[in-house]
Amino acid sequence: MSLEFRHIAHAYTGRTGRVEALSDIAFTAPAGKITCLLGSSGSGKSTLLNLAAGLLPVQSGSISVGGNEMAAPGVNPPPEARPVGLVFQDGALFPHMTIAKNIAFGLPGGGSAGVIEQWLDRVGLAGLGERFPHELSGGQQQRASLARAMAPEPQVLLMDEPFASVDIVLRRRLRRDCRRLLREAGTTTILVTHDPEEALDIADHIAVMENGRIIQFGTPEDLHERPASASVGAIFGGAQIVSAMRDGDVLRTSMGVWPLSCIAGDLPDGAEFDLLVHAETLGCEADEAGLEVVDVHPLGVASRLLLQTPDGKEITVQSTATVKEGMRYRIVPQTRSVRAFLRR
Ligand SMILES: Nc1ncnc2c1ncn2[C@@H]1O[C@H](COP(=O)(O)OP(=O)(O)OP(=O)(O)O)[C@@H](O)[C@H]1O
What we know:
The protein is an alpha+beta fold. 22% of the residues lie in helices and 38% in strands. Keywords: ATP-binding, Cell membrane, Ion transport, Iron, Iron transport, Membrane, Nucleotide-binding, Transport.
C-alpha cells in the first residue's frame, strides 16, 4: 500500500508566534519500498512523520494509504486506529514489560509464543525474550522495537531516526538488517534521517527536505547523478557550493575569477548561479593576491588544503603539491569540471 501526501501544510502557533513548518508537501511513498525523509535540523521531517502517525492533527491537505484517505482536516484518527507502526529514536519500549511482552503488545490476543520466538529470531534476539529493556544494549533495544513495530504487520512503518542512538559500526549493521527485514515483509516504510550516508544505504527513494518543502524526490541514483539544485548535489556528492556571476568570458566567484571553460554547459551573461565543485578537480597556482592556506591535512598521496578569502569564506582543495600554511594561491578548476545551477 502506498502512502500519499497531498498538499500538506502545517504551522505551529505558540508563545513565540507562528512557525510555518511545512508548505505544499506532495509526494507518494511507493508501496513496499523504503522512502527516506532527508534534511537538516528543522527542515520539517518529524512534523511530516507525526502527521502521518496521528501524533499531530492534519491542518491542510490530506494523507492516504493505498488510495484511501487516512487523515485530513477534521479527520484525525488516533495512532492506534491507523494501519501504521512506529519506531522512534530511543526505541520507546515499555520499561515494565519483558521484550517478549513488548512484542506481544500489538498482536491480536497477545500473539502465540511461536510467533514471538520467530520475531526475536528475525531481529537477532533469540533467547532474550524474558529480559527487560534495561537489560539490553541500545542496539538490542532498537532491534526489539523494530520487532514490536513489525510484528502486527502494519501496512506502513514510520521510523524517526531509528538508529541515531547507536554507534556507527552497529548502525550500519542494524540498517542493513532492517532493510532486509522490511523488503522481505514488503512493508511501505518512511524513515527520517539527517544523514545522507544512511539515506543512500537504506532507501529506495529519498525525499530531500529544506525549509518545510520537498526540494527533490527520487532514487539515490537520481539524486546523485541529476541533483535538482546545488544544495542537493552538495549533500550527496561531497561537493562544495561557490556563488558566481558570469561576466563575458569569466566567472566572478566568491573564490576569485575563474575561466568560463570550467563549466560544463552554457549560461546567460550576467546571470547569477551556484557552482558545485569537488575538491579533487580544483587546481592551485601560486599568486600573492590569492587565497591564504589556513590548514594542510596530509592524507597519504595528496593533502587536503583549506583556503580562505580575505572576508573569511573557505574552500577545500585536494593537492599533491608541497604546500605550507600561510602560502597564497589562486584557484584554477579543471575544464568542464564544475556544474552550475541558476539562482532562483
Ligand atoms: N511544538 C512546536 N512548536 C513550535 N515550533 C515547532 C514545534 N515543533 C517543531 N517546530 C518548528 O517546526 C520546524 C520543523 O521542525 P521539525 O521538528 O519537524 O524538524 P526536523 O527536520 O524533524 O528537525 P530535527 O532533525 O532537528 O528533528 C522547525 O522550525 C521547528 O523549530
